[in-house]
Amino acid sequence: MNPHHKPLWIAGGIVLALGATTLSALWLVKAARINSVPVVVAATTLAQGTRLTSSNITAREWPNHLLPQGFVSDTSRLEGRYVRMAIPQGTPILESVLAPEGTRGGLSAIITRGRRAMTVRVNEVVGVAGFALPGNYVDVVVNSLHEGAPGHTGSSVSKIVLEHVPVLAVAQEANPDETRPHVVNAVTLEVTPAEAEQLDLARSIGTLSLVLRNQVDQQITATTGATRQTLLGRFNGAAPAQQGPATEVIRGVERSMQR
Fold first, then answer.
1. pTM of the model
2. What's the burial of 162, exposed, middle or buried (CB within 10 Å: 0-12/13-18/19+)?
3. Residue 4: what pLDDT?
4. Which CATH architecture has domain 36-103?
């Protein structure tokens, strides 16, 4: 081989290698497009209750084998809809996190379908010292008087009447990302229609307190209520008395333990 031709052979090899690499890359891109579909994702981090527009959503190619259930491919289908919860940037926007079509903004946009929002008045103590924040779960306790229970009429009883109730808002704040406690005079809860009736009756027959619970703890505890007799009986070392009257007095607000 003529030594003067060697650089030409090297240059030719480099060109062929680059060409092969380019063709391979184009083939891989084409294959990826064939095995993926566009999925609408958040172009920026979306706060709860945000209205979707062409500026805060975009479509990205998503592998077929990783497609999330309820995904949407066309951004125009989602424009004008509201999100029920915060969505990080780049996260697919699924139908399950959207308010129903036609829903307007505000608190109503984040209420789960089939449920209701109901506000109860609280004070610093009843409101768990401001630690009951949007996105938390609480139990509702009513303190009332026995009615019609022989030997117990006029005595006080405390009973948990609703359990694992989501907090939608405190005062006018509905941002679930807020972690600082807020001492407020009103807390809005998300309840079923039946629970709304029970909650309304409970606040009419006694005073309400909120009990903050762990967000992942969904266990329902069927308590019978606490009376003065059972409370003082424990301090005196006596066996707790039967608490049938505690259940009887709140029969109008006793909820089914089957959520």
1. 0.60
2. buried
3. 53
4. Alpha-Beta Complex (3.90)
Query: What is the average per-residue pLDDT within 200-221?
Result: 85
Inter-CA distances, 215 with 79, 83, 125, Å:
32, 21, 20
Element (H, E) at 230: helix 228-235
**Is the pLDDT higher at 258 or at 34?**
34
Judge whether 29 and 10 are in contact, CB under 8 Å: no
Phi and psi of 68, rounded to 5°? Answer: -75, 150
- Ordered DSSP codes for 4-57: GGHHHHHHHHHHHHHHHHHHHHHHHHHHHHHTEEEEEEESS-B-TTPBP-TTTE
The segment(s) of the chain belonging to CATH 3.90.1210.10 are 36-103
Helix boundaries (H) for 60-217: 193-205
Higher-confidence position of 223 and 201 = 201
- 186 or 171: which leads in pLDDT: 186
User: How far apart, in whole angstroms, are the C-alpha atoms of residue 70 and residue 91?
Assistant: 13
What are the tokens at 143?
Answer: 């303190």
pLDDT at 140 over 60: yes
Q: Are 107 and 94 in contact (CB under 8 A)?
A: no
Strand partners, 188: 119, 169
Separation of alpha carbons 253 and 200, rounded Å: 9
pLDDT score at 221: 82
Q: Please, are residues 213 and 138 in contact by the beta-carbon 8 Å criterion?
A: yes
Long-range CB contact pairs, 54-62, < 8 A, 24+ = 54/79, 57/93, 60/90, 61/32, 61/33, 61/36, 61/37, 62/36, 62/37, 62/38, 62/92
